[in-house]
Structures are given as C-alpha cells and as structure tokens.
Write a structure and sequence with these properties.
Blueprint: H1 9-17, H2 21-31, E1 42-46, H3 52-59, E2 63-68, H4 71-82, E3 89-92, E4 106-112, H5 121-131, E5 132-143, E6 153-154, E7 164-165, E8 173-175, E9 188-190, H6 193-202, E10 205-211, H7 217-222, E11 232-239
Parallel strand pairs: 1-2, 1-4, 2-3, 4-5
Antiparallel strand pairs: 5-11, 6-7, 8-9, 10-11
The structure holds S-adenosylmethionine.
S-adenosylmethionine (SAM) is lined by residues 5, 23, 26, 46-49, 52-53, 68-70, 73, 94-96, 112-114, 117-118, 183.
C-alpha cells in the first residue's frame, strides 16, 4: 500500500503519545522562539498533525487553531484534546491555501516539520503572508535539508561514531523513505536550504533568526549517531508591514 499522512495518522499519533524525543525536541526549539505568554494572540499551527504544538500554544494562552489537510490527522488531534481540554481548535485545511482562515487575522504562524510536506512552498508562503497581520511572524522547523536529504544513510562507525552519507542534495522534489517504520514513508518534499530562504525573502518575509540546534540530551541518548549534527533547521521570520 502507498502510505500517505492519512493512512499513517493513527500510527503517527501513537508514536507521539508514547513519547517521541525527536518531535518533542522540534516542538521545544520552535516554542523557544515564541513569547512565554501568548494570551490574546491568534496563532495558526500549519500542518498540526496530532496537535503536539497546537496544545502547547493553547497552554501558553493563545487562541490556537491547528490545520491539517488530512481528516484522520485532525481526528487524532481532536481526540487528544478531548482527553484534557486544551482550548485548541482544529480544522481540515491545506497549508497551500488556508481557505478557512481569514485574511490578516493571525499574529503568529507555527509550522513544525510541515513546510517540507507542502507540495508548493510558494503557495504556502503566499497563504501564510495573507493570513498574518502586518508584522506578524512565521516560525518553522524542517528536517535539516543538508543532512536529511533524500535517502541519506549512515556509514559504519568511524572514529567511534557512524557518519551521515548524503547525496542528491540538488535534486528537489517529492521523495519517499524506504523505511517501513519511518515517518517519511508517507513521503515529503526535499528542497535546498537556499530555496527555503530565497522563497521566504521573495514573499516579503524578513528573516529574524535561524538556528541549527544541537540535539537534546534525550535525542542524543536514543540516537548517539545524531549527537554531532543538527536534525532540524529553524527559522523565525516576520511579515513586512
Ligand atoms: C511530520 S508531521 C508534523 C506534524 C506536527 N506539526 C508535529 O510537529 O508533530 C507533518 C504534517 O504535515 C502535514 N501536511 C502534509 N501536507 C500538508 C499541506 N499541504 N498543508 C499543511 N500540512 C500538510 C501532514 O499531514 C502532517 O500532519
């Protein structure tokens, strides 16, 4: 069977419910770029999945809306909220259009590991810019494209640790992992780092911060081979007034 985010939604939600160090790390570095309190702020979580980031935004007081185009993913997010009402709301919507979100209605957009899934980055950034208030901000993480390029593997241990093997960095587009237990068996879009940055600038965003954080202690303990590489690239950008 060809997997999609819809077909793996239940599996994905279960991974996060039982604790995924990588997803918790991605959430935490993204949240570090946001104010500690978001009371009164409208925050859109683009590609919310089962809601790990949306719930955290609501816990900071935001009026948090999570959107995802895959109905089963939204069902998982709504089910997680039912276990303890978080105040987060969810809707089925495509990040490339954000058709359910009013123009100029959002103070912050978060996108945790989701812009690398939208098929049209330019359309998504057009939609994000439309829904943000002037001066509103976009904060996103993506798998670091330099190290998580299509079909990247590991060598045998060298100097005590396996090394990342990366090829085909310049070949942009959809690819699917062969790992039957991997998240990216649902497929995702590879884009060069420069493509993300130039597309952002071309859509009227000012890049305020970028980061390539060292893996958390928990990620490094679970996957020691990753200790010396940044698994994610993070950007905070503001929409020009
Ligand atoms: C790796 S998951 C991340 C989910 C969540 N943000 C998290 O941190 O766990 C990628 C998400 O992107 C979503 N996605 C795929 N295509 C999308 C699109 N066109 N617009 C918005 N989200 C999309 C998937 O359904 C999936 O929930």
């Amino acid at each position: 069977m060809t997997e999609t985010w819809d077909t793996i939604a239940v599996w994905y939600a279960e991974q996060l419910r039982t604790g995924s160090a990588m997803h918790e790390f991605s959430r935490d570095i993204l949240l570090d770029c946001l104010p500690k309190t978001l009371a009164g702020q409208q925050v859109l979580d683009l590609g919310c999945g089962e809601g790990i980031i949306t719930r955290a935004l609501a816990a900071r007081g935001a009026r948090a809306l999570g959107i995802d185009p895959f109905p089963r993913m939204i069902e998982q997010a709504q089910a997680a909220t039912k276990n303890g009402p978080s105040g987060a709301r969810y809707a089925v919507d495509d990040g490339c259009t954000l058709a359910t979100v009013a123009t100029g209605s959002v103070d912050w957009v978060t996108a945790g590991l989701s812009l690398n899934n939208v098929p049209d980055l330019s359309a998504a950034l057009t939609a994000v810019r439309r829904v943000l208030v002037p001066g509103g901000r976009l904060v996103f993480t993506i798998p670091h494209p330099c190290f998580e390029a299509p079909h990247a593997t590991w060598t045998a241990a060298a100097q005590g640790r396996p090394r990342r093997v990366v090829g085909d960095y310049h070949v942009e587009g959809f690819w699917r992992s062969d790992n039957p237990q991997g998240v990216r068996r649902a497929g995702n879009q590879h884009r060069m780092l420069s493509t993300y940055l130039t597309t952002l600038v071309g859509h009227g965003f000012l890049i305020e911060a970028t980061a390539e954080p060292t893996p958390s202690a928990q990620v490094a303990a679970e996957q020691p081979q990753r200790a010396a590489l940044p698994p994610f690239f993070l950007v905070r950008a503001s929409s020009k007034k």
